[in-house]
Amino acid sequence: MNRDFWKAFARNRGAVVGLAIMAAVVICALFADLIYPTSPWEMSTIPFQPPLSEDAVLGSDTLGRDIAAGIVHGARVSLLIGLTSTAVALLIGVTLGAVAGFHGGRIDDAIMRFTELFQTIPNFVLAVVLVAIFTPTIANIVIAIAIVSWPPLARLARGEFMALRSREFVQAAVTTGQGTGTIIFRQILPNSLSPIIVSASLMVATAILLESSLSFLGLGDPNVMSWGYMIGAARTVIRQAWWMSFFPGIAILLTVLALNLVGEGLNDAMNPKLARKGRA
Amino acid sequence: MSDILLDVRDLTVALPEGAERPNAVEGISLTIGKNEILCVVGESGSGKSMTAHAVMGLLPKPHVKVTGGQALYRGRDILTMTEAEQRSLRGGRIAMIFQEPMTALNPLMTVGDQIEESLKAHSDLDKAGRRARVVELLADVGLPDPEHLRRSYPFRLSGGQRQRVMIAMALALEPDILIADEPTTALDVTTQKQILDLIRTLQAEKEMGVMFITHDFGVVAEIATHVAVMQHGRCVEIGTAEQMLNAPKHPYTRDLIAAVPHYIEHRDDFLKQGEALLQADKVCKTFHLGGGFLRKGRQIVAGRDITLTIHPGETVGVVGESGSGKSTLGRCIVGLHKADGGRILYQGQDLVALDRKRFRPFRKDIQMIFQDPYASLNPRHKVADIIAQGPIAFGEPRAKALDRARELLRLVGLPEQAAERYPHEFSGGQRQRISIARALALEPKLIIADEPVSALDVSVQTQVLDLLDEIRHRLGLSMLFITHDLRVAAQVCDTIAVMQKGVIVEMNTAREVFQNPQHPYTRTLLDAIPGRGWEIPEDLRARRHGGTHDGRGAVA
């Protein structure tokens, strides 16, 4: 089973490239303190150093901080926020969607109308409002991103649960006297995970973009270095010093692209119909 | 020369690498002459559809290719023709009808427009001429009010009506050859009979050659003039219908014919003893479809005043067409649906009045076997777990439940190693055995079998039916056997209840129902059994009566 999965995943070249980029980003995040032991906020050299200069490979910013150090440390925040906010969104979305899809009827109606309420408000605006009301700390940013991104997951989980609930193996579980909890967690959930995992992997990418956008607007956590903040801070001098916003921008682009590629690869590997293509 | 329309010589179709066998079809030779109906018979996966698709140029390119042989239409090889030539042949001279009438029509086009399409492409009739022809065709295939029906969308038609539209479409250009790929498999018996009659009448009228693909020898007996039997991509026997049906030579043909379900006359009548195990008393169930906050939905009556009893050790068959409410009845008894009215007494306790919690103890006693062997097993659980989950839910220690699961696997004729595997590694028949093992795990007294064999090939059907019959005798089980096929019911049931539109119209011993049907609907159903006029050769009949079937466990 597992070997089949990797085989199917590896058949998608892009997905493997994406996985490699992601591995690099994760290594940066984990070993940031070893690669650049000094704080990324420290002024390490003269301001406005272009890339490939002596003590700053990717140049320095308006205050002489090392851009490369900023990117390596920023990977941490980006990944942290991307992953935790997706996890929180999964928790909210899948729970609500599962309950709605499993029970149907009034409960389904109530939960879905609640979900639609969130879907009518533009994501980013809501996130900005939430962060502006609460203080911009990492925890609050995570919560804000999670709150704006769970509705699609809820809809997806609901659809899966509705379809699976009427499948015969679920009915067989009912007739053999298994409890509701067992049925939801042992019978239905494992079978509905594939599309949820795929869309969650894409959601990490969206979360990273959202965080960058918030930081760009100055609504990021002021205590941590992040890619969005770096671009935001450099925007006033973009004509004199392109590298200040260019490299963090590339970092965001590559990470989001990698996540999308991985998501697509997961989709190929987990969707048995697609995976079988070419063989049947 | 002039009489042979289609001459397939040594046709070989290769499957892509990694498939279970290198060739889907290997060295098939067959001919279809004018006024002939050639039935191609075989189990699923025997390559019968592939043969037809190869002739029609419908193989899934580029994975499946013809690698050898010829298919001559009036002496010209179809396989080497250009795409354009093939196309004109396909639309005009060779037509095809498919198995699934539900998906073969475009839901966004009216029926008339769809038939008109091929007229537009292949004939030079003007608009009025085409319209007249469409109406004529619809009338030909026996559809009511063709002028009105022409403007209907497919969703308004029943399965049988759609199949008629498909036939009308195929006949639009008066083809010489009609290829029918299991055109009646998805239909009810009564509709099946009508469609078979229609195909036969039209064939005789237009002197067409027909290639009819089926897995059911009953249908063969009904319609064929010639028969070809296929197994694993090879044609094992070919001959006239008379010769094949009454004196089959190849062992595989004999196996297939022996497997055709039929009424076993010497079965003893069931003796009702003691209190009824289950008694349904005026059970009603109505479904409310659609509708919502402000709209009113449709109502479908699936059961009205259903009364029936099952005694210990008795097998009661519920027979009816799709939509007659027979499954709903079964589901009400196992508690998957809640009846709206009436009582279902199990050993004197009314199940309808119980809520979920108080119903639970009864789940052990009443178990269900489902129709679709591919949907009824959780694909992510191992077979042993699937079987053991019920007992574990009722508090049995895991290790003990798993041991018991292995025992049950042996009981249903599967090797013990099956326990550690996943459902997708098994064939349909084997999966159905696993389903049976799961139902037996809770040591039930009553089993509701909802069409347990209708998704299986005929030969596998027999094995599963034999298994069910043997197990219920050995364990003294009662069974409610739901099926649309009277022949199948005849094999396992002591008592048969015939259901129509939510009402039981007749209930009697199997013998009485078959030999002395009272209700007109029962008679209609009996008449519709395909191959009723055909007597299975005596020596093959005897094989079934002995109760031993040498194919058991080998093929499943």
Kindly describe this structure.
The complex is a heterodimer of chains A (280) and B (556). Chain A is mostly helical and 280 residues long. Chain A has one domain (2-276): MetI-like fold, CATH 1.10.3720. In chain A, 75% of the residues lie in helices and 0% in strands. Chain A is built from 12 helices and no strands. In chain A, helix 2 packs across helix 11, helix 6 (123-133) crosses helix 7 (138-165) and helix 10 runs antiparallel to helix 11 (243-270). The two termini of chain A are 18 Å apart. Mean pLDDT of chain A is 87; it is low at 274-280. With 556 residues, chain B is α/β, with parallel strands linked by helices. Among the domains of chain B are: 4-105 and 176-259, Rossmann fold; 275-355 and 461-474 and 484-529 and 538-556, P-loop containing nucleotide triphosphate hydrolases (Rossmann fold, 3-Layer(aba) Sandwich). Helix content of chain B is 38%, strand content 24%. Chain B has a 6-stranded mixed beta sheet with strand order 6-7-8-3-9-10, sandwiched between helices. The interface between A and B is medium-sized, with 22 and 33 residues. Chain A: It comes from Caenispirillum bisanense. Chain A: This is Peptide/nickel transport system permease protein. Chain A: Keywords: Cell membrane, Membrane, Peptide transport, Protein transport, Transmembrane, Transmembrane helix, Transport.
The residue-averaged pLDDT of chain A reads: 87
Radius of gyration of chain A, taken over Cα atoms and rounded to an integer in Å: 22 Å
Going by CATH, the architecture of chain A would be Orthogonal Bundle
Tally of DSSP β-strands of chain A? 0
Greatest interface: A-B, 22 and 33 residues
Distance between the termini of chain A: 18 Å
Report the end-to-end length of chain B measured between terminal Cα atoms: 43 Å
| CATH class call of chain A | Mainly Alpha
Derived structural class of chain A: mainly alpha
Pfam families (chain B): ABC_tran, oligo_HPY
GO cellular component, one term (chain B): plasma membrane
Membrane topology (chain B): Peripheral membrane protein
Domain ABC transporter (chain B): 6-257, 278-526
